[in-house]
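Example: Phenylalanine--tRNA ligase beta subunit.
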Amino acid sequence: MNTNLAWLNEYLNQDLDLSQAAVIALGERLERTSVEVDSVFNLAQGQDGLVVAKVLSVKEHPDSDHMVITQVDAGESEPIQIVTGAPNVAEGQLVILAKVGAHIIDRESGKLVKIKKAKLRGEESYGMLSALQEIGFDNKIAPDPIEKGIYVFDPKSGVQPGDDALEALGMLDPIIDTDLTPNRTDMLSMRGVAYELAAILDCQATMPTFQLSEGSQKSADLIQAEVTDEKLADQFGLRVIDNVQVGPSPLWLQRRLWNAGVKPVNNLVDVTNYLMVLFGQPLHVYDYDRLPEKKLTVRLAKDGEKFTGLDEQEYELRPNQDIVISSGDQVLNLAGVLGGQAAEVTEKTKRVVIESASFNPSLVRAAARRHTLHTGASSRFERGIDPSQVESVLDQAAALLADLAKGQVAKDAVYGARHAYQARQVEISVDRINQILGTDLQADEIASIFKRLAFEFENKDGNFIVAIPGRRPDISIPADLIEEVARLHGYDNLPTAYITGQTTPGKLTSRQRQIRASRRVMESLGLNQAISYALTTPEKATRFNANKAAKLVTLDYPMSSDRTTARQNLLSGLLDDVAYNVARSVHDIALYEQGRVFLAKGEKEQPAEIEHLAGVLTGSLVRSSWENSRNVKEVDFYDLKGIVEKYLAEIGMPAVRFEATDRHEAMHPGQTADIYGGDHYLGFVGQIHPAFLQKEKLPQVFGFELDLQSIIDYSQRGQNYEVISRYPQVSRDLAILVDEKVTNADIQNAIEKTAGQHLVESKVFDVFTGGKLPAGKKSLAYQLTYQDKNDTLLEADVNDDVEKIVTVLQQEFNAEIR
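Written out as structure tokens, the predicted fold is:
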């Protein structure tokens, strides 16, 4: 939420200090008391030298068919000549002028650039006439596309030549951007922020009043409202306004919208967005004459219904789940989320219907997630709006449209559902507050805090009965009031309690050490770690589980249809990872995962969480090169069996044996073995069943799954092992030209003697003779691989070592570096 502090000043009886230092300090205070502050900024972003100018004359450029020469009055003694290509420039306009020496934001780099005097096709230009996008406005908030041309002030805006354009556009207004928690819906409105800052600063907030003048014709004679079930909307009101004049909003209104991050559209739409930002109450306006039937109905979507939104996208509605607003059989809105094109207001609109409502937050939230539509309206409805102001905001919208669009308001509003707000009563005692906070606050101090929050309350001998206003739906229980007292009293003022007792140094348990050792060993054996979701489908959850008696653990409210069940194995997740990589042309895959599986004895019992270790192989373990191309082969059962044997030996598991088995349905019956440590079952290893691989369009895959908990329980303690370094390798290619008589063995010996301690491998990968090489010469290409067992190698260290090798090869073999 972008909060314009200059606008907010109108609602506080204490003027805020709008200097940069004071605004930053206020943001820090707000963050320590209420919500997180993302940033403090203004739209100017350091720009200067922008003034309002009046176009005095426009004439064609003698050497250009798209540029013109203008004379503008910038409040100085003499007119200023500006050459521009703006297609909409005309005499008499009030425009934005970036004078010579001004700084504006470059659209491509985002950096400030200085405006200089220029000569365009032989004509001098002393500045630039600007569109809003050329002075930092995003297309999302600029009223017109940049292709339309420069920004033109409304003659009624009150600006004069020479005025500071940044100030006239509100670009110098300080803005605090807050990141809200889901419960603080009040902070999604200027009204809510005003009350919050009034509480923090110990002043008063007062909201603007309005006067509504109604005509003699009744709204009930023009429109009807219906709510089929009040569980969908407990309030739904309409007003009709006739003879509206659609046009741009006045500058004061546009300023407030674009500073709030909202794009001005026209006076009808802008009024609804303005009041949403001001009060947190979303509104919608319909073209009355485009309604199929003079009745608006709030209902659930029906089978097969579709809806085209204002974003020009078509949405297939979820029957009996999405709340819609319809007229006749036509769906007009996805209620609380997005308006539709069917009754959209246009420049030809003459009569409108304004809607103000309170929709079911849960259904709005579900619809927004289902259709991936997160709008300003949905973000407010799904958190819960203030039900006490639904009617008053509707009336204020009508009053504003009567003023700004010259409309005539029909008498009275029409309601399909209407409920008077009853404030919640929450009781809390002074003793309870002090007990929880560890304070010794007096009743009058607590009463002062409730007054600052503008809460009505009654104090009966230290027992407070507080009436919660509708703007604070987050407060419903005594603990919420305790939190309010704590944050306004000041978290820093709460007493500090020190922990007493003997301290002990932290260390890993034996179980934790074994789990970490398992990961290190797997990585040393060439497998990469994968992490899969613990939630999956029932089919995947049980596919490789050898314990058929275990019951499924399912969620009552899953986040999606493929995340409903707690896994009983790790192999299913690893196969998903294999499928993901294969689909992206990765053929050689070696993965392992260490994590928990969830096995329940009964449907209502708490599941046991058991540590497992699983891995998969597919493709080849050996990288192909010219010297070993004949030795490269696809992995097989024995490759994976060897990895499992090596792991169990390293981890300290004695007397391991493998027994052929066909009891695993998802594994190949002829290439699968159960693994035992003594008499204890540890897991299985083998090839994934070909039928499954064919169905999933996967190559031959081998996998294993071990009960890591059993391995930890039965493995020998104190086993020592050494693993391969987990730090990355660095490779360098070196090509040299030497005499044919020089052997590769001589070169290799020289490299190994010269290289430092971090060279782990040197191999020749190319030999070339003949061609354009000198007679009696041959070319040898080597790959040098470096690795440090204890740290990440630096490029500079590797480069120094390679230079030493090059020097020795040049001296001993007269080698030439290619």
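The longest helix spans residues 795-813.
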